Sequence to fold (845 residues):
Amino acid sequence: MTTKPKVSKAELAEQFRSFIDPEYVITDDETMKPYECDGMSMYCEMPLLVVLPETVEQVQRVMRICNENAVPVVARGAGTGLSAGAMPNKEGVVLSLAKFNRIIEIDPLARAARLQPGVRNLAISEEAAQFGLYYGPDPSSQIACTIGGNVAENSGGVHCLKYGLTVHNILSVEMVTAEGDVVTVGSDGLDSCGMDLLALMTGSEGLLGVVTEVKVKLLPKPEVAQVVMAGFDDVQKGGDAVGGIISHGIIPGGLEMMDGHAIVAADDFAQAGYPRDAKALLLCEVDGTEEEVHEHIAQAEEVFRKLGATSVRTSQSEEERALLWKGRKSAFPAVGRISPDYYCMDGTIPRREIAYVLTEMEKMSEEFGLRVANVFHAGDGNLHPLILFDANVPGEFERTEAFGSRILEMCVEVGGCITGEHGVGVEKIRQMAVQFNDEELQQFHDVKAAFDPAGILNPGKGVPALKFCQEYRSLEHKQHTHEHTEAAHG
Amino acid sequence: MADISQQLKEQVLQARDSGHKLNIVGGGTKTFMGREADPDAGTLNVGEHTGIVDYHPVELVLTVRAGTPLSEIEATLAEQGQCLHFEPPRFGDASTIGGTLACNLSGPGRPWAGSVRDQVLGIRLLNGKGEHLRFGGQVMKNVAGYDVSRLQAGALGTLGLITEISMKVMPRPAASLTLVQEMGMDEVIHYMNSRAAEPKPITAACWVDGKVYLRLSGAKSGVEATAEKWSGDVMENGDQFWQQVQDMQHEFFAGNDVPLWRFSVGSTAATPNLEGNWFIDWAGSQRWFRGAGELKELEPMARAAGGQVSLFRGGDRNGEVMHHQPEALKGIQRRIKNAFDPDNIFNPGRLYSWL
Fold:
């Protein structure tokens, strides 16, 4: 926990301006306004000030000053995060890495790229394309999100099942510690001696250090990719087909599922030719060599038919493949069209529980009086329920949050977890108490203290203070009513 | 097949109360690794903590007690047409999954299939306070809390006793074949990396004794089509060859007289100019060297190659055996150790003299 900062805003700004271009030390409310939230715009806070350093040395000096004066620091990339992990601290500094946006080097033979943390995820693959290479993890926000943020969140995407998460696709990270030291964890080798600090850093949500450089692995672009679309008249059958494909020995490049609501919304939006009467739709992409894809596509079609698919369609061209994906990729905006607002949840479940969880969610939807559409990475059991609501209706967002909490708790109940890829941030900090006990949470706090003794890095995020957990646990599980949201907020 | 976690917990608590240290032992096949174990420490034997806790082939997830032998796990998976994709080295029938994770050991397929650390989804850990904690989970994606599970990979048990591991398993490839051809050490780095940059089903690449070996696996049609396009002869007993590489039974690794060094370096880096024999694996990322040397002399070479060096087997095991750590990282690691094991009970001095 941080103590009260020892300097005023004016003093801090003056110190920063002595070594950072004064234009990039922002102190006025109007210019700071865009930094008040990340992609999770329901959670807002204005920072003390915003600073945009341009060199690693400047980052070090910012950290040293903040560490000495107990000023909280929230590192920020593109601000696309969906758990309010980059929400500012009102007594702290937002440290934007936006100026670190250079691809330093691509080594095609070693299949690696050295990047500044503010490089956009998609820009890596675009730059690597000239060498027939690409960067594996492809979160939905890849057009805007940055690699530094990807490391902080251990971002995934559509292709995780086969190609892994960020943690599987990076070689090393250079970071500035809370105390202002520059250290490199990892190396050009595939592992390093001793405890795996690179893994610990990945997904640490800006609580352990500020990433100033990332070296990622690049993959050869597959020769061919084809997608099979399968519609099912029953959620159970769709869920079973996910397991069916995988236990058949095929690891698809992507395996996505949509429920009935999402199918109709996405098809209205993209005119992808989805079976509109289906209750579940699977998009199964197989990639690899021509021969391999040919063999696996035939097997996938057969598996889906055997497991009761009411329609099966395989892309015969790149255009058709793009069209089938268009519906899935535009599912969020498509759902946005049918509701004033939507709240995108993120939880993971064992695949065998897909049908059960979807059915339960339908029941909850009735209980809470809110519609829910499901679009998710079925291959790795990562759900993204979209709860539809209207923020202008008093009490509706609170009800939405309560519904969301119930979904996350159900994920834990069936053996899953409260976040697959969006992170805990502020948004899910209460549910951490459901997934972990006090001893485990204390262990997390102790790990944090090993990196950040003064507790200045992104305080109040990721790991809840233990005293709030008791409260939350006793309230939850006993009364699954709407009241608990207010209580947990209070 | 038994759950002795309660007994293990009591042993830790006892050691804590009495100020004793504990050396962790599973199957006892990796005693040669790390620095010399503390002779005054007691033994914490996880070898009896065995059994598969949960296995759903459809989920591709296995949960197993840490003392379970790899051979037992692999036999269970094989019945379902699945395998441990990271091809863990076995130094004997008794080698366990817990030791494999603690030592971060993975076989020839590692650059493509990932390492043991990559496949871990969650663990249970007995820390130095005798708390039996659960981290991660049994699902493919889980970003709640710090990744304490993967942190254990390579920590050599210094952060606590891993008691249970959940990990991703994979279908066995439908087909596999190996191409072999003669090649000099100078050319092979470029050759292996070039092959690895092609979108082909390559799953292993190594060089030893003037020959380069490439393994292709996956769908039969894809493997055969690639083999036709690429040079090299199809090896008759390819699977056997890779099994030997995996278990370090290849003759390169034989004997204990000459120290075995491991360079974990950039895949395209030039091989250090040293008097002795080399075995290049992982398409250049892992290079084994047999020869006399001093860690301090080899470290700059490893650094120049973008990586690190460790004394894997033999040599002086009372000195440091792992690549030197910079001061800032030393400080962080000491504090992490203290966060998990405040009384310094587990495997004292096994990883570094200062930890």
Remarks:
- The first strand of chain A starts at residue 25 and ends at 26.
- Chain A is about 35% helix and 20% strand.
- Residues 75 and 95 of chain A are 5 Å apart (CA to CA).
- The radius of gyration of chain A is 23 Å.
